[in-house]
């Protein structure tokens, strides 16, 4: 599914917090939005979902497969969320309902949007648990969020996001709260799901190293404005804007990579 | 002599419901561990959730009692007890935590917060001048002493937290994920600041982190922890360059790296 954002402006209390942002994501593309705190990356994501906070207004255009989303009533957007756009946020614990079993939560989008029958619930939940590689799917669907590890919870959140096979997967810092080995597993899962389901991916992060593992193209944001965009390799190798150069230099100064021929 | 000498240090917890559940009766948060830290040396403790790295940090600071073993600071045994009995250790150590917002009192002016260790430790002299000096040392405008934490950026707050940790001139700085909550450009600046403090003040450091990048850029030596156990230790260049333990290899392979 393609996504086209044009001249997006978001204002909160008369202040422009996102100022003329635009980008296009082709069907099946893995696109990254990167920036530091206050860059407008998360607000841009929320605008796509029609979930901007009270008091924030958005103008411009957000089209999903050519169809305008901006300005649509919430009831119509609610039908788009979960069925055509799947979303994964940073903290899986707050995204899950502590009082409902994993299985019930996995199939909720299918019940809301796909008319899943009660008798099909268990099998559908197990299939989703298998899809996101949760251990022991038959048993885990009967468990509750607090009984799962952080990485398992994020797998559940991803399972919910892809339940309806959405054409667009929107992920906002989905690995930031996870341990590094779990982060690697979750990134691999995103990569696999996107290629298997042929969905487009919009991946929001502050971490260039994470971005370079999952996205092919990127838009760099700073203070609500576009800084530059292009293929991730090009941005890393030859940033054209000083903000991007600063991000890349800071990432290199704080990250680690094995030496040539190193063991890792 | 070592600044820190850790011998056979462990911490385990009895599981109150062990009988009913039928599993082992004891959780080993930290299995017996030995290491030394020389004065002016930087040691990184890396590991993931549940590795025991926070338990170790709490034991080094006498915030918890070990199940076995000892910690010696400059030859003197560190024993958890009333605050009075630990004043000497507090004088020698400073702590920086992950989140500078929750580690600073929101109702206290920056200058008052930074001066607090001086008062608590009974260090006399021109405290205002010491506070101004240390704020300058961490790259902040001393005028910020009059401000409140909410008026500062995240990077400024972490610099304040650092200044508070070193205002009494400790010999050891302990950092628990000191860069994790910061934006990448700020992270690079605070990392550089930590390095310069280390070099110029001869400060020894124990940095607890899951961030291989931080470890690579700052540590002389590394302890790798997994499930409460020390699985590998050595010079950081060696451990990162030629990891011996399978877990270390897995951890390094998983670390996101720039293409």
Automatic annotation (TrEMBL), chain A:
Compartments where found: Cell membrane
Pfam family, one: ABC_tran
Bilayer topology: Peripheral membrane protein
Origin: domain of life: Bacteria
Residue intervals passing through the bilayer: none
InterPro entries: AAA+_ATPase, ABC_Ni/Peptide_Import, ABC_transporter-like_ATP-bd, ABC_transporter-like_CS, P-loop_NTPase
Main location: membrane
Location of the ABC transporter domain: 3-248
Keywords per UniProt: ATP-binding, Cell membrane, Membrane, Nucleotide-binding, Transport
Family statement drawn from the similarity comment of this UniProt entry: Belongs to the ABC transporter superfamily.
Protein name (database record): ABC transporter domain-containing protein
Organism field: Gryllotalpicola daejeonensis
Lineage: Bacteria, Bacillati, Actinomycetota, Actinomycetes, Micrococcales
UniProtKB/TrEMBL annotation, chain B:
SMART domains in UniProt: AAA
Stored Gene3D superfamilies: P-loop containing nucleotide triphosphate hydrolases
PROSITE patterns linked: ABC_TRANSPORTER_1, ABC_TRANSPORTER_2
Pfam families: ABC_tran (PF00005)
A molecular function (GO) term: ATP binding
UniProt domain ABC transporter: residue ranges: 4-252
Protein family: Belongs to the ABC transporter superfamily.
PANTHER family the record matches: D,D-DIPEPTIDE TRANSPORT ATP-BINDING PROTEIN DDPF-RELATED, TRANSPORT ATP-BINDING PROTEIN
UniProt name for this protein: ABC transporter ATP-binding protein
Organism of derivation: Gryllotalpicola daejeonensis
């Amino acid at each position: 599914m393609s996504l086209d954002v044009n001249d997006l402006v978001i204002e909160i209390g008369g202040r422009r917090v996102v100022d003329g942002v635009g980008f296009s994501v082709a069907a099946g593309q893995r696109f990254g939005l990167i920036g530091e705190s206050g860059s407008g990356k998360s607000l841009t994501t929320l605008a796509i979902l029609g979930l901007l906070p009270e008091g924030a207004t958005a103008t411009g255009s957000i089209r999903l497969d050519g169809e305008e989303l901006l300005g649509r009533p919430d009831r119509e957007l609610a039908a788009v969320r979960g069925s055509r756009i799947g979303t994964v946020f940073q903290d899986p614990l707050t995204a899950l309902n502590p009082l409902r079993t994993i299985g019930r939560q996995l199939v909720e989008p299918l019940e809301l949007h796909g008319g899943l029958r009660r008798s099909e619930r268990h099998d559908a939940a197990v299939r989703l648990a298998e899809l996101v590689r949760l251990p022991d799917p038959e048993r885990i669907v009967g468990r509750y969020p607090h009984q799962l590890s952080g990485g398992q919870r994020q797998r559940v959140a991803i399972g919910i996001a892809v339940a309806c096979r959405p054409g667009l997967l929107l992920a906002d810092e989905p690995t930031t709260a996870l341990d590094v080995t779990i982060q690697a597993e979750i990134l691999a899962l995103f990569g696999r799901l996107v290629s298997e389901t042929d969905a487009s991916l919009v991946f929001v992060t502050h971490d260039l190293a994470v971005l370079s593992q999952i996205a092919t193209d990127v838009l760099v944001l700073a203070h609500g404005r576009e800084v530059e965009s292009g293929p991730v390799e090009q941005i890393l190798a030859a940033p054209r804007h000083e903000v991007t150069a600063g991000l890349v230099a800071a990432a290199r100064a704080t990250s680690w990579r094995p030496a040539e021929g190193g063991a890792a | 002599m070592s600044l820190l000498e850790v011998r056979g240090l462990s911490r385990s917890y009895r599981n109150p419901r062990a009988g009913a559940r039928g599993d082992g009766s004891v959780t080993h948060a930290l299995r017996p561990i030995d290491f030394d830290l020389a004065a002016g040396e930087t040691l990184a403790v890396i590991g993931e959730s549940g590795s025991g790295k926070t338990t170790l940090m709490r034991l080094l600071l006498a915030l918890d009692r070990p199940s076995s073993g000892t910690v010696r600071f400059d030859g003197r045994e560190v024993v958890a007890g009333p605050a009075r009995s630990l004043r000497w250790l507090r004088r020698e150590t400073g702590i920086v935590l992950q989140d500078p917002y929750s580690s600073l009192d929101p109702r206290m002016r920056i200058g008052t917060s930074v001066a607090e260790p001086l008062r608590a430790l009974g260090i006399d002299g021109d405290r205002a001048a010491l506070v101004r000096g240390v704020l300058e040392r961490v790259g902040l405008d001393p005028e910020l002493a009059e401000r409140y934490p909410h008026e500062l950026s995240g990077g400024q707050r972490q610099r304040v937290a650092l200044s508070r940790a070193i205002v009494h001139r400790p010999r050891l700085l302990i950092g628990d994920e000191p860069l994790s909550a910061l934006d990448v450009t700020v992270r690079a600046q605070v990392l550089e600041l930590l390095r310069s403090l280390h070099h110029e003040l001869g400060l020894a450091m124990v940095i607890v982190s899951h961030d291989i990048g931080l470890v690579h850029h700052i540590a002389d030596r590394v302890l790798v922890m997994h499930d409460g156990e020390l699985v590998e230790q050595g010079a950081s260049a060696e451990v990162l360059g030629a990891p011996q333990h399978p877990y270390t290899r897995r951890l390094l392979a998983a670390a996101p790296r720039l293409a």
